[in-house]
Amino acid sequence: MPEAVRLRKRRSVLYSSAGGAAAQRGAGAAAPAPLLALALALRTLNCFLVQTSFVPDEYWQSLEVAHRMVFNYGYLTWEWTSSLRGYSYPLIFASMYKALQLLAKDNVQLLIWVPRLAQAVLAAFADVKLYSLVQHLENSETAKFVFFCQLCSWFTWYSCTRTLTNTMETILSIFALSFYPIKGSKMGNSCKYLALVALAIVIRPTAVILWMPLVFSHFLQEQRKTDLILYNCIPVG
């Protein structure tokens, strides 16, 4: 009889006691600078190559509203005239427009491209943060594959530099996940991830669908529930 084939057991770093502790200890480590430079270069190229229109919301729920806030003219859709939308996301771009106005650089090209480039920079940081997250949970090899897939994702390439609330929700969720206590208590970062989650929900309320079960799971696993509520949830709220 041939000797039984022995399959190699792959054990995730996340679920090993020593690896899990090491992953949590290294959660704040920075990603390699060349990786960030690559992500910034690709997302900048991404920004300039994507010149099509996707959905009206990338203008009517962000840039048009910001333009009206700064320059006092422009069209607002019915959601804004009926006060059904929040101004938190357009306010980001309004601050950019105001800076351009004060510098007397508020020409058409800069009004178009500065918000897009800002969104591209945020997307690049989110790409690198995703790499760091997977690196700490698994290993560098897996993180490289995830990073490669993220950069090669056609839909991510198509949408991540657009001024959409969906895009900002995705970016904030990636950053929040990097601070989320995936295993055990990690009170030192609870306030950070809860603040990012709150911001994501303010910008796009549907983010609550993703984060409600995760926050509830954290609450159930947290041994110091009172501290979590008093020193993290209430200040963020």
UniProtKB/TrEMBL annotation:
Keyword RNA-binding tagged: no
Pfam families tied to this protein: Glyco_transf_22
Membrane topology value: Multi-pass membrane protein
GO MF, one annotated term: alpha-1,2-mannosyltransferase activity
GO terms for cellular component: endoplasmic reticulum membrane
PROSITE patterns named among the record's database cross-references: TAT
The entry's keywords: Endoplasmic reticulum, Glycosyltransferase, Membrane, Transferase, Transmembrane, Transmembrane helix
Entry's localization field: Endoplasmic reticulum membrane
EC annotation from Swiss-Prot or TrEMBL: 2.4.1.-
Main location: endoplasmic reticulum
PANTHER family for this protein: GLYCOSYLTRANSFERASE, GPI MANNOSYLTRANSFERASE 3
Name of the molecule in the record: Mannosyltransferase
Organism: Lonchura striata (white-rumped munia)
